[in-house]
Amino acid sequence: MNRDVLPAPRAGTPTAAARPRARVACPADAEGIIALRAELTSSEPLDAEWTALCSRQLARRLAPGGDARAYVAETPDGSLVSCALGLIHPLLPAPAYPKGLAARVHAVATHPRYRHRGLARELLSALLDHLQADGATLFELRAAADAMPLYRELGFAADPASMRMTRLHRAGRRIEEPAGPVLLPVEEYASTVPKSTGSAFIFFTDRHDRPLQLRATYSQVHPWQFPGGTTDHGERPWQTAQRECHEETGLVVEGPPRLLASVFGLPGGEWPFSTTGCVFDGGRLTDEQIRSIVLDPDEHDAVRVLPLEEWEPLLPPQDFARLDAVMTARLTGTAAYFDSWGWGK
Predict the structure, then answer these.
(1) 0.85 exceeded by the pTM?
(2) Residue 122, φ and ψ in degrees, nearest 5
(3) Strand ranges (DSSP E) for the chain?
(4) Per residue in 179-191, pLDDT tens?
(5) CA angle at 340 for the pair 222 and 304, rounded to the nearest 5°
């Protein structure tokens, strides 16, 4: 957005009822924030090329995983009239900033017709709280003389040792946009990505290829299940399958591991994470091995071996579809990919 077309509020004197609404900024606000910054706080105006470049980069940096945080105030017609923008940057960890994160308040700007109404204070306070919640403990800004009282009230102090220098490489040359995403510290980036729980199971049949399952005491939605469970910290899937199988049945499965199926489910019901499971082949059990199974009464109360078709009326559709896919993988030797599992269904 060019500085000559900065969104102007409607004519008239603002009233209390028309007070702009403050909210967290999103990538779509980048152009409006850059326009406010260029018009009201920059030492010299940006031309159209620089404005477009800054807007595109800020939009990326406001997206999940980016290093920018901002709050804006908008009028009922959607015009941005105030903003507070901060950028997070890494430091070496120290007692004062244990996560090694600092934040620079890059711009605080309010349209002249909406000044002296507490917008700058409201947005900047919200921004500082957000930055602190994200791990930043050192905050920096460059204060204009008329804004210094506000910054002092919020806790900022002047630093007489502050010094600045600008060194341009190939003066006059346009800065190219970075080809890739803006990188965040690992800990902060990790907090933005989807979370998933791992699980692993052992699939047994008897000597006649009839599937074996255990009846769960804790789930009416999924009453019959393979021996197995959730991966513990530090475990690999095969280790999980061996441990859980022994805990739930007393059987020891030596391996080597043979993967029958990968099972994936999206978050749903009361479970907030996606699930990724591995189903391994436990082979064919003898009648004596089946009779030797010892159940954990807190988890299962019955063992049953049935032909595949007789399992269908006992299982929810997705559970039978999973069982059918695993059985097909056993018979064909081709691992199955099953992505319709869900604990909440």
Answers:
(1) no
(2) -60, -45
(3) 21-24, 68-74, 80-90, 101-110, 138-141, 196-206, 211-216, 224-225, 228-230, 259-265, 274-285, 300-305, 336-341
(4) 555 566 777 777 7
(5) 35
